[in-house]
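Quick review question:
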């Protein structure tokens, strides 16, 4: 007895399972890839840029120092909410903020190393020659004495230690809304620093990064404001 040949037409094809990432994950992966490319470009392209190396009191050096401090808190807050939020859009945005600003911090640290300059200096004094009014601290040119840590945080729109503790302790919608409020203010505090280095600076890569940073943070402010409305956040 032999088996009858099997007609291919009689065999029902097994369904092919298609897997697709949610749209916000696709956007997230693209954002992470862009951040990685930008960091790589920053490390390798600037070696071919002609010009004078920024000095210790240059706007580029001051910007790199102050923005590293500013970014460090943004990364901390973003990872705090990323670990606890149940909102997919906020989870994606917070991860994007953390990865992009971590890459930028690394690049700015590298600038100072290559320029042979210390990583620390008097905060915001480099802005004194600019015409920029700081959103949270008045005109930069009014700064005649070294700023205290509290004054620096306020001028940069940064969260206080009490606000950071409240964010870590909060949960659910309260945590989401508190994060959005703090991060919007934080981003708004970065814009005057970016505007000052764009006005005063001349180093090509630093200006490119600053312009990109401003565009990204303005976009994220709009996105977070929309999230506040969607989540019904007050204040």
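Suggested answer, residue by residue:
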């Amino acid at each position: 007895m032999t088996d009858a040949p099997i007609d291919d037409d009689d065999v029902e094809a097994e369904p092919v399972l298609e897997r697709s990432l949610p749209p916000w994950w696709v956007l997230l992966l693209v954002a992470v890839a862009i951040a990685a490319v930008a960091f790589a470009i920053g490390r390798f392209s600037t070696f071919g840029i002609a010009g004078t190396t920024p000095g210790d009191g240059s706007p580029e050096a001051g910007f790199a120092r102050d923005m590293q401090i500013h970014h460090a808190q943004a990364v901390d807050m973003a990872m705090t909410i990323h670990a606890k939020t149940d909102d997919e859009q906020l989870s994606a945005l917070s991860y994007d903020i953390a990865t992009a600003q971590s890459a930028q911090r690394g690049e700015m640290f590298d600038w100072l190393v290559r320029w042979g300059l210390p990583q620390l200096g008097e905060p915001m004094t480099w802005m004194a020659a600019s015409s920029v009014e700081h959103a949270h601290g008045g005109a930069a040119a009014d700064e005649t004495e070294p700023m205290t840590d509290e004054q620096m945080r306020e001028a940069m729109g940064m969260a206080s230690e009490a606000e950071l503790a409240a964010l870590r302790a909060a949960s659910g919608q309260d945590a989401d809304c508190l994060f959005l409020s703090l991060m919007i203010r934080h981003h708004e505090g970065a814009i005057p620093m970016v505007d000052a280095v764009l006005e005063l600076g001349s180093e090509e890569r630093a200006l490119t990064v600053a312009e990109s940073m401003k565009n990204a943070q303005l976009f994220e402010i709009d996105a977070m404001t929309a999230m506040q409305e969607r989540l019904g956040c007050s204040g």
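Why it works: The longest strand covers residues 133-134. Residues 11-22, 24-30, 36-50, 135-143 have pLDDT under 50 and may be disordered.
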